[in-house]
């Protein structure tokens, strides 16, 4: 193998490594589908924005109507990540879950003057805010009222969020239903109102059985507020589990940052969660990103402590590419000096075959013309050796070869009876 071929092969290997590793650096900006600016999802998205900014990642928060619109934007690749309410189907779409991050209760606020029954199957002739178009609240409320058989017995309004709360406070509604974090900003005027009450639903276990993906959890007395005490007594409520989801080709380093941010944001003690309970793989009900799954199950690796986050997040990918190259390139560099010396020596040695052939020809009886032909061949070889460019450590071989040529030429001169040229 020629030296140039080896160098070319090493160059190709390094070029291949550079090509395979070209996507290691993550993008410096992502788009996050939240809900309305007055909603709990927006506040959560702002926390992600703040945390990812520590690593120089800009999070552009996209205002949406809610989970349904979030899902649509993710499906069309118009955003990179978003929050998705439990029960919103995402089968067959190019998105993955990064984990379940949040318990969202179904909160029912009522006008105290409306005498709304605690059993929702008895609701009749009520003005009910079911959530705006594109919101997850609307999907959940429509499903619940339909399964309870009361959807057609009441007047349903397409208001949600702050608009629904304002209408309820103004007496334009009897009931406003929200699927939201209990600390959502637009709920605070409702908690503080003397004309609106947080309804304690009866038969919550039976209601949950009728609403897919839901479960019953208890809001402790005073969990929302201790002054005044809200709720006044421990209150079972139907809840859904919200998921952090992303497009399936989201950069692994961004997935890593989002999952770690989710731990910081959602991992504290809360009304519905113990320390470290979220994020989790529980109730994900859709494909989960492989990197997120590994991080959720195994936690951070030691590489996170001393490598840049975008390398630590992909260390296995890096090693998968670099280790074979290391095993190939290091031995290659060890062989290169030997191969180089062999190549330099070979440039001289390849002439010895012809010199040796000329010596063998001299053992035969040749006429003067044949001898002069051999002499010309030796002169040509001598000129090639004399003009050969060799590094100083390898010139001695050329000198030795020329001395050998001189000895053969003297023998030819003896046969011709002349002095050596």
Give me some keywords for this one.
alpha/beta; D-Maltodextrin-Binding Protein, domain 2; 421 residues; 14 helices
Mean pLDDT: 85
Count of distinct strands: 12
Q: Tally the helices.
A: 14
Instruction: Note the run of SSEs as H and E.
Output: HEHEHEEEHEHEHEHEEEEHHHHHHH
Give a short account of the largest sheet: 10 strands, mixed
Output the structural class.
Answer: alpha/beta
Name the poorly predicted regions.
none
Q: Specify Rg, calculated over alpha carbons.
A: 40 Å
Q: Note the beta-strand portion.
A: 15-25%
Please, what is the oligomeric state? single chain
Condensed summary:
By secondary structure, the chain is of the alpha/beta class. It has 14 helices and 12 strands. The model has no long low-confidence stretch (mean pLDDT 85).
Descriptive account of the structure:
The chain is an alpha/beta fold and about 425 residues long. The chain folds into two domains: about 30-315, D-Maltodextrin-Binding Protein, domain 2 (3-Layer(aba) Sandwich); about 335-415, no CATH class. It has helices at about 5-20, 40-55, 65-75, 135-150, 160-170, 190, 205-210, 250-265, 290-300, 310, 315-350, 350-360, 370-385, 395-415; strands spanning about 30-35, 60, 80-85, 95-110, 125-130, 155, 175-180, 195-200, 215-220, 225, 230, 235-245. Strand 5 (about 125-130), helix 4 and strand 6 (about 155) form a beta-alpha-beta unit. Helix 1 runs antiparallel to helix 11. About 35% of the residues are buried.
């Amino acid at each position: 193998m020629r030296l140039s071929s080896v160098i070319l092969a090493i160059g190709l290997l390094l070029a291949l490594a550079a090509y395979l590793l070209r996507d290691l650096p993550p993008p410096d900006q992502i788009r996050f589908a939240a809900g309305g600016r007055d909603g709990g999802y927006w506040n959560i998205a702002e926390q992600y924005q703040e945390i990812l900014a520590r690593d120089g990642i800009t999070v552009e928060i996209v205002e949406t109507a809610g989970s349904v619109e979030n899902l649509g934007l993710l499906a069309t690749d118009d955003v990179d990540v978003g929050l998705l309410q439990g029960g919103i189907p995402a089968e067959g779409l190019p998105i993955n879950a990064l984990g379940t991050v949040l318990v969202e209760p179904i909160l029912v606020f009522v006008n105290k003057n409306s005498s709304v029954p605690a059993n929702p199957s008895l609701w009749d002739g009520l003005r009910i805010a079911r959530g705006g178009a594109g919101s997850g609240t609307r999907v959940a409320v429509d499903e619940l009222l339909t399964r309870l058989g009361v959807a057609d017995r009441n007047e349903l309004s397409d208001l949600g969020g702050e608009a629904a709360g304002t209408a309820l406070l103004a007496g334009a509604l009897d009931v406003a239903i929200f699927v939201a974090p209990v600390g959502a900003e637009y709920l605070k005027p409702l908690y503080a109102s003397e004309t609106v009450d947080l309804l304690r639903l009866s038969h919550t276990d039976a209601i949950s059985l009728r609403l897919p993906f839901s479960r019953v959890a208890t809001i402790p007395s005073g969990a929302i507020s201790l002054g005044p005490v809200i709720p006044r007594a421990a209150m079972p409520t139907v809840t859904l589990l919200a998921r952090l989801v992303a497009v399936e080709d989201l950069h692994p380093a961004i997935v890593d940052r989002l999952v770690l941010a989710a731990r910081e944001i959602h991992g504290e003690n809360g009304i519905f969660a113990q320390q470290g309970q979220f994020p989790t793989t529980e109730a994900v009900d859709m494909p989960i990103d492989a990197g997120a799954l590994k991080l959720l199950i195994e936690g951070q690796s030691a590489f996170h402590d001393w490598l840049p986050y975008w390398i630590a997040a992909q260390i296995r990918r890096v090693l998968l590419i670099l280790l074979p190259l290391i095993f190939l390139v290091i031995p290659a560099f060890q062989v290169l000096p030997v191969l180089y010396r062999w190549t330099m020596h070979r440039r001289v040695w390849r002439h010895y075959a012809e010199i040796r052939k000329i010596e063998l020809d001299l053992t035969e009886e040749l006429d003067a013309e044949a001898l002069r032909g051999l002499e010309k061949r030796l002169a040509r070889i001598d000129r090639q050796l004399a003009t050969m460019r060799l590094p100083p450590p390898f010139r001695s071989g050329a000198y030795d070869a020329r001395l050998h040529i001189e000895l053969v030429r003297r023998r030819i001169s003896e046969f011709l009876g002349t002095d050596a040229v």
